[in-house]
Amino acid sequence: MEKPYVVSADIYLLMKKWAMQNSFVLPKEEFFRQLRKEFSNHMSRVFSDFELISEDEISNGINRIVTESGLPTISLDRVYFESELNFEISRLVNKDGEDRGLGRRAGTPSLAQQIRKLRASGAREVVIVDDVVFEGVLLERIIELFSRINIYVPLVCAGIGIAKGINRINGAKREIRCVCAYDEVVDEVCERDFYPGVPLSGRLLVGNDNIGVPYLLPFGKPKKWASIPSKHAKTFSKFCLHQTITLFDEIERRSGKYISCQDLGRKIIGLPMDETRYTDALRKIL
């Protein structure tokens, strides 16, 4: 039996906030449904078992689990669940896409400052909310870090969980509950990582406040970061860039103004960061 390739939908939620903050008009949800249908059709030609998990399914499921727990929350990913307490951490890479460890998310306080805020909150027993638990190594480190400041985590709530990560986190004094769980997957990737310019898209460039490295050519590493077979990497990357252009073209049409590179929710490595029209910059690299 083929292992599924799973993508968690999130670009509508992310772009909705961005559009409101920057006075752009977002297309209706029907537009996103069509965009995702095209994306799913393309992915199904690459992977025999492809699944796109909807934002509503993840958001509603997380809210239900958190409500049932009755515990205060610390969110590691605010896309699906808003929380008063957060711990904003991100994977960092250099300009060549090489791993440079972990650091704060763009636009958030240092990790040390975040820890001080959590310690001062008075929270002592919490549920951690995360979008995806894959191998569970980072989550385990965060739980251990919290325990050192006397914050204990009897429950983890995740949108999507993979058995390897679930088994690592589950223990005698801890439980993990997932909206969707899988024994094994080819990979699990956030939708935003395939749409350059969407907030939080790609890995974060070290030493810069908000420059992303998307999981596409010519920017990042689709095979290493998203398990896209090498023979499909170029075609897949071009497809995603066309989808991104379609999305931003439609936002421009509805807004009656163009979107510049400096308007983006996350800047993109190798592209201008000034008033250059974003879709023009993307068309030049196709």
Q: Helix/strand-derived class?
A: alpha/beta
Estimate the strand proportion: 15-25%
Radius of gyration: 19 Å
- What is the percent of helical residues? 25-40%
Mean pLDDT across all amino acids = 95
Describe this structure in words.
The protein is α/β, with parallel strands linked by helices and 286 residues long. The chain is 40% helix and 22% strand. The strands form three sheets. It has a five-stranded parallel sheet. The protein is globular and about 55 Å long. The two termini are 36 Å apart.
Name a few traits of the molecule:
13 strands, alpha/beta, single chain, 5-stranded parallel beta sheet, globular, 286 residues, 40% helix
Topology summary:
Blueprint: E1 5-8, H1 11-22, H2 29-46, E2 50-53, H3 55-69, E3 73-75, E4 85-86, E5 89-93, E6 99-104, H4 111-120, E7 125-133, H5 137-148, E8 152-162, H6 163-169, E9 175-182, E10 187-190, E11 203-205, E12 211-213, H7 222-226, H8 230-255, E13 267-268, H9 278-285
Parallel strand pairs: 1-2, 1-10, 3-4, 3-7, 5-11, 7-8, 8-9, 12-13
Antiparallel strand pairs: 5-6, 11-12
Helix pairs in contact: 2-8, 8-9
